[in-house]
UniProtKB/TrEMBL annotation:
Protein name in UniProt: PTS glucose transporter subunit IIA
CC terms in the record's Gene Ontology section: cytoplasm
PROSITE patterns, alphabetized: PTS_EIIA_TYPE_1
A Pfam family of this chain: PTS_EIIA_1
GO MF, any single term: kinase activity
Record localization: Cytoplasm
Organism: Corynebacterium anserum
Alphabetical keyword list: Kinase, Phosphotransferase system, Sugar transport, Transferase, Transport
Length: 154
């Protein structure tokens, strides 16, 4: 019996971008895993980031979180080099070890504020320890996507 595909939803509204276009070599080269990025819509001050899949929050920092569904781990990174902000511009809603469902709000962040401070506010969604061959793209670079839109499956 084959396992059902896991579909990853967009945690925000914006424009789909390729992982290769992310201005961080760790993500752009696929070192962490395969996935996509979403550029938040311009002009939006506050964005609520939701869970792209069901799982347990195994790691929560203001600028990223990791979800584990027992088989796969998904990393959602908010912005590039945003660890340097030490939480400024981010508000986490749940502690580590919380079970969450797809679509639940996890973090609120301020992409325009990040941009004004010189940080790229792109949101990176990566299935850790996975290659691009294991993913089926459901949204493509340059396409608009709504929160909850299908990004990829694996």
């Amino acid at each position: 019996m084959t396992k059902p595909e896991l579909t990853i939803l967009s945690p925000l509204e914006g424009t789909v971008a390729s992982l290769e276009s992310v201005p961080d070599p760790i993500f752009a080269t696929g070192t962490v895993g395969a996935g996509v990025a979403v550029v938040p819509d311009p002009g939006v001050e506050v964005v609520e980031i939701t869970a792209p899949m069901d799982g347990t929050l195994t790691r929560v920092q203001p600028h990223f979180f990791v979800l584990d569904n027992g088989e796969k781990q998904l990393l959602v990174q908010l912005g590039v080099d945003t660890a340097r902000l030490e939480g400024q511009g981010f508000d986490t809603h749940w502690p580590e070890s919380t079970d969450v469902h797809q679509g639940m709000p996890i973090v609120t962040y301020t992409p325009r504020e990040l941009g004004r401070m010189g940080f790229d506010p792109i949101v990176i969604i990566v299935m850790m320890k996975t290659s691009t061959h294991d993913l089926k793209k459901l949204a493509y670079p340059g396409e608009p996507i709504n929160r909850g839109g299908k990004l990829f499956s694996c």
